[in-house]
Amino acid sequence: GDSVTQMEGPVTLSEEAFLTINCTYTATGYPSLFWYVQYPGEGLQLLLKATKADDKGSNKGFEATYRKETTSFHLEKGSVQVSDSAVYFCALSERERRDTGRRALTFGSGTRLQVQP
Amino acid sequence: EPEVTQTPSHQVTQMGQEVILRCVPISNHLYFYWYRQILGQKVEFLVSFYNNEISEKSEIFDDQFSVERPDGSNFTLKIRSTKLEDSAMYFCASRTTFRGVEETQYFGPGTRLLVL
Which residue in B86, B89, B80 sits closest to B108, CA to CA? Predict the structure, then answer.
């Protein structure tokens, strides 16, 4: 079955440091890939997505590129802020040939990011 | 901006009791989902719902669970006889559909369920 593997956290960085959170996946078809963020005490928010190989998703300074050859979707940000402290989830959703209502998300275990001033 | 809402935000119940978690998906969305996240663990898919029926469910979604769309706006998850291990954060999600195009799932803020 499908699976998503993320680097374990917590990741602790100083403000303005460069961030990479690794994510690799296993899927039978051609999934869409997502990064969701969960701020303390809140629900899941979509951060960015990519729907096909070589696509780059970006939002709020975060980027991730869909690499089919390495089955990866690593999250990067050039300069983190204290407000970026949260748990980041990589996820995938398989496509279906017919829109049958499937495409449930498969999540990684999450990576907690702590940014210190 | 439209958003998914969930009630209650927190629920405490005794083992063996029934609970109903409520969700109001985004109004033009057609697919609805429940996920759960046990404290410190990954988010797990429970069930998806389309056209007034379950379209997919995971192994977690056993006979103790049921879902319903009782009217045009609410989407509920019922746990008939709660167990200690049902304690988790439950997320509702919804998405629109466009044939052949992947559409994002939008999540609610979650209901934290504690079974004592």
Answer: B89
